[in-house]
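Reply to dn_fold:

You asked what the input looked like. This is it:
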Amino acid sequence: MVIKNPAFLFPGQGAQYQNMALDILAAGGAEVKRLFALASEVMGRDMPALIRDADGETLKRSDISQPAITLANLAAAVYLGEQGVRPGACAGFSLGEYAALVASAVIDEETCFRLVKARGKAMQDATDKLNAGGPAGAPGMAAVIGLDPEKAAALIARWKTGGLLDLYGANFNSRSQVVVSGTAAALGEAETRFKEAGARRVVRLQVAGPFHSPLIAGAAEAFGPVLAAAEFKDPAIPLFSNVSGGRVGSGAEAKALALRQITEPVRWTAEEGAVAALGIDAVLETGPGRVLQGLWKDVETNIPCFAAGTAADIETLIGWQLEEKQGA
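and this is what came back:
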């Protein structure tokens, strides 16, 4: 198919892997190389070397993964742009919202890197403080697979009134997947209870802390002044919010939502529905991994979702379009 009006969906923390986006750096033109140089300058470190050399545990740290994933997301978007593919709308999953803010011209690339640098540090610092609280184990996140989001939310509310505190619905991902945040004790107890309630699996996620929950409120407090000082413009193309699940109306609203997003749930199912209703002709997962493609399968739409996170992915998309045009 010839893609004329795609939505870019940018993945979030947890999508990282060693060497991500380095193939795009090798294949891309001047704009991609400029982006990597800018990221290295703002971060004060050689970002290609970091992505190449960091092991999985290092990449899991918020102060490392957030700038690195954002660079990978933006690199994919810039490389698509070099091939003539630009978004008609955009959204990002959790951290991915920062790349979406750039794609919609709400913030520029330099501001984006400065924000995710500060956000990643604030979230890692908050997580480190939680981890230092005692020997009970680190707080974190877990995916609950096989339960309806409404049922999972009702269970969490009921268990909270019964004394199971520090467990929160964090990501409402699909009709059969919810991610929860909590302390180690709460997650351990919840795993047993969710399975008894019918969940097929409960899987701990490779993230550094209990994101999108009040447990990480210290990060929002630390990040707030940095965010407040940044310039946010009104979106140039449709932009969608994790917090509301709907379209963002202004730069001021985008800034307010960016702070709330740290401690409030990602309403991804609602957001996907709003994107699908916009009249786009394709969705591109613009960044590392395949998670968002899997979640898109639950959307009741005929709009296809394609991988666009590697040079090979993007070159395949461009090849399809050339073939379509030549055959027309």
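The beta strands are 6-10, 89-92, 140-145, 167-174, 177-182, 201-204, 282-285, 305-307.
Hope that clears it up.
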